[in-house]
Design brief:
The protein is α/β, with parallel strands linked by helices. It has helices spanning 19-34, 45-50, 53-67, 69-81, 91-108, 118-129, 163-171, 219-225, 242-251, 265-274, 284-293, 306-317, 329-338, 340-356, 362-369, and strands spanning 7-11, 39-42, 112-115, 137-140, 157-160, 179-181, 205-210, 232-237, 256-259, 277-280, 297-299, 321-322. It folds into two domains: 3-187, 3-Layer(aba) Sandwich (Rossmann fold); 205-355, 3-Layer(aba) Sandwich (Rossmann fold), CATH 3.40.50.
């Protein structure tokens, strides 16, 4: 079989518009641009296995996070993040998905599998342990940490986004040459910026505010707490939250500019290039885009589970600022942009991060694996 006729199967999990799907879609787009004859396909194991039940479970999952954030955070920490170096079996998931995963792989006949979520990775790791699978499997991590649900030891290659992840994998026995520091993959239309955070800024700042693809989180509370003086224009990405978009439109505040869901990555790239900073949650894909664009990033809130841990890792890397106090957000933002020390510090951290990234495109790495 020639390289051109090979097939790559991408495996996110659940059909909610999460970073797992965004990363899979970005990788597929990159592969199609660079290797147009290679076949790429995406599959979601829950809906493949259980049909419409997936949508019901996804809905409950989202409602549970928002209704009981502290409970969700505690369970997440206990189940998948506590004692992360120790292996753990998740037998209930094997019971639910292992036979289905075997069926999916047999049906699709891929030459390589790319996992952007821990559950498919865990299942394929088990299959490799049992001698049921002999094709290359790649983990593409969509956060800035690795938890215990990810399959690791039997997985062939790991695309990571922080130095701590490399250290953890090596401690788990993964050879260093099978780990690549790629960062969390972003869409090719989000172009990299090589310049530093600008040291001079206009009298009026442009700040993007986002709460993720679904427009969820504490964004509405944050916007209510901001006393706009006219010195900062807040461009609010409402995502698919039409109610929030209408509410902000009715405010008729020229300093708070709501933006409806943006599907075009080119348009998103232009928007990134027009702003001075971003107020956001620590979701993996958004932060990765900000790192790529070298935009000063201010965290106002972290959802329970993944985002809480992402925030901790990003603070260790020194590439974000955490605004845990919402009193006078405008003043805090101006203090950052008027401080030469703050700007030199973040420029140094961003430079250090970029210097550690591999200079090879992910499409080239996957081609080499095949």
């Amino acid at each position: 079989m020639t390289l051109n006729s090979k097939k790559i199967l991408f495996l996110p999990f659940l059909n909610i518009p999460s970073g797992h799907h965004q990363v899979a879609d970005s990788l597929i787009h990159e592969m199609e641009l660079n290797e147009p004859k290679m076949k790429c396909e995406k599959a979601e194991i829950f809906s493949y296995s259980y049909g419409k039940i997936e949508a019901f479970i996804s809905g409950i999952y989202l409602k549970w996070i928002h209704a009981f954030p502290h409970v969700y955070n505690w369970i997440y920490q206990q189940c998948v993040y506590k004692n992360i170096e120790q292996p753990k079996n998740f037998k209930i998931y094997e019971l639910l998905f292992l036979a289905q995963m075997k069926r999916l792989i047999k049906e699709k006949q891929p030459d390589c599998v790319v996992c952007t979520h821990a559950l498919p990775s865990y299942m394929l790791n088990v299959m490799k342990e049992k001698g049921m699978l002999n094709i290359p499997v790649i983990n593409v991590y969509t956060d800035f940490f690795i938890h215990r649900f990810w399959g690791t030891n039997q997985i062939d290659f790991h695309f990571v986004s922080s130095p701590n992840m490399i250290e953890l994998l090596i401690n788990k026995g993964v050879p260093k040459q099978r780990i690549w520091f790629t960062g969390i993959p972003t869409h090719p239309e989000i172009k990299s910026n090589s310049f530093s955070v600008r040291k001079d800024h206009p009298p009026t700042l442009s700040i993007m505010v986002t709460g993720g693809n679904l427009g969820v989180g504490a964004m509405e509370d944050l916007l209510q707490s901001i006393q706009t003086s006219g010195k900062i224009k807040f461009h609010v990405l409402c995502g698919k939250n039409k109610l929030l978009y209408q509410k902000l439109k009715k405010l008729n505040n020229e300093n708070i500019i709501p933006l409806a869901y943006i599907t075009s990555r080119k348009e998103m790239n232009k928007l990134y290039d027009s702003i001075d900073g971003i107020l956001t949650k620590p979701g993996g894909v958004t932060i990765s885009e900000c790192l790529r664009k070298r935009i000063p990033t201010f965290i106002y809130h972290a959802l329970p589970g993944q985002e809480v841990i992402n925030l901790d890792q990003l603070q260790q890397l020194g590439v974000v600022y955490y605004l845990n106090n919402w009193d006078d957000i405008e003043s805090q933002l101006f203090t950052f942009f008027e401080s030469k020390e703050n700007q030199e510090k973040i420029n140094s951290s961003l430079e250090d991060y970029h210097n550690q990234l591999t200079d090879q495109k992910i499409a080239e790495l996957i081609k080499r694996i095949l």
